[in-house]
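Side project, low priority. Logging it here so it doesn't get lost.
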Amino acid sequence: CRVKGPGLSRLAPAPGNGASIGAEDAKTGMGAGMSKTKAGTLRPKGAVCGSILILAGFVLSASPAAAHHVMGGRLPVTFIEGLLSGLGHPVIGLDHFAAVIVVGCLAASLPRGALLTAGFVIAMMGGVTLHVAQATIPAGEALAALSVVALGLVMLRARPASSTAALGLFVLTGLFHGYALGESIVGAEPAPLYAYLAGLAIIQSLIALGAMTAVRWLSARDAFAPIGLRLAGAAIAGFGFALFAQQLGA
């Protein structure tokens, strides 16, 4: 309709048009760059992808290096020191931390994912036991790095791996990383040794199950989460390859 006034003539929206336009904007997600979730709330497209890639950025920002020792290289001598070393070792060693996170992410898309992560943790403890028993896995650190590459590549795939293939990969990964982690506890007395194993089992179970739960929660609420996971998988595979190259040059 046309509104007239002293020296003024302009078009004004018909009654109700503003409300209908606002409603239409809400229905379409307020333009490009926004998506509507099942709950009806709006969020930027790729917001979840960005949050998933935080891990990849954190991993790639660090120089490839072997896991550090929580006790500064000193062998734990008490139960508490063994427990703290077990709790902290997989976290401050970025290659081990990345492996545990990816195990949880891959388990999220598979049935009985919690049991698959348990297989990883059990195999990891077996790897520690092998090292403590003076068994030898040739090129153990290099194999641990290659397992990170393999996990990243599987995460990069558009289709998830089968439960059987995932379990096999998780067991091998746990075995290699456990063997590498066992270096810091070789020669310890039984009390700190058992505490170290308990700490490893606790922290890696919590991290893997936490990652699995988070990915399932995000995937149910954002259609772009799988894209972020695949990009993170590519970044982690690159990190693992850098670790492997470092081992070859050592």
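Brief comment: DSSP finds nine helices and four strands in the chain.
Revisit when time allows.
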